[in-house]
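WARN retry 2 of 3 for item q-0093 after timeout on previous attempt; input resubmitted unchanged.
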Amino acid sequence: MNAVNIDDLRKLARRRLPRVVFEFIDGGSQDEVTLRANQSDFSAWRFLPRTLTDIQQRDQSVELFGERYASPLILAPTGLAGIVARKGELQAVRAASRANLPYCLSAMATRSIEEIADAADASNWFQLYVLRDRGLTKAFIERARAANCSALVLTVDTKLQGPRERDIRNGFTVPPRFGFATLADFALHWRWLFDVGLGPKIKFRNFEGTDVNADDAMTITQFIANQWDLSVSWQDVEWFKAAWGGPVLLKGLLNPDDAAKAVDAGVDGVIVSNHGGRQLDGAISAIAALPAVTKAVAGRVPIILDGGVRRGADVIKAIALGATACMIGRPWLYGLAAGGEAGVDRALTILHDEIDVALGLLGCASLASVDRSVLVD
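OK item q-0093 returned
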């Protein structure tokens, strides 16, 4: 595959996907100010390398919750990956397993918890939303535990849906409003059409066996929209901790006061995220929020940065500012769109190799030697 960097994969994805599908994974909310800032704000930090250090052996492995991974990368939970490529989540988790990286399955995936567990050579993480139906939530938790998921990620920044105007213009709504131009675009992208468009019906398979009709994606989408619990509070975190019994991470924190409260409430990890710029437009970027969150957490739990990572150097900057690891969402989706499972492999290899080069050129032999001293602003 002729892709030198993640942006090359994005360009390939744009060519190979119908516009409505590409913009679904690529776009953000409203004017997309936060979406752009997630990437551009990394440039506010510059490296201050050291020379004449021994970098013959470089180690970018990282330990999280008792497991050691090959790189500080986590495949972020993304809903509807199956619309990008057939069985998209299965292709992604196999690539993650080969790379010895954690894969976090979205509750809104098109493959089930059990299918993902069967396809992986290692334990995965599972992501949930705070739903009003605690019986359904508890059932999800029990299934994830039975599938040996090693961490539960609770997304807390989606009480309301951010207005994603690209999707609205493209008719990617509930119900869909596709015009002739969109249908013609589907036909022009014949590889996607035969792989996904004319393939098996896309379902939210985690809802199979529940009272919600898993065969109807629109029914489930409407059901979930009505399930957002607008009254959720810190006491609910205690419920999830007790129900899960293992590491619980909160995803969607930007405010350092919230991060401190999360640790006080007993969470095991904090994920600094603005949902990829898909919720509150104008919110601070993930990398800009990271230093204050790091100070508030004060080393008590791991911090994971989620948002805007496109280069291995971005990952190193996040580590220097206090993160233990970074989640990547769009990079692996671009790879999936560009070349299926091999494309995801390529995305992970690109970032791994860029991290290695950045470490060496910084004069650092390991992630453990990366700290705030390697950056200037």
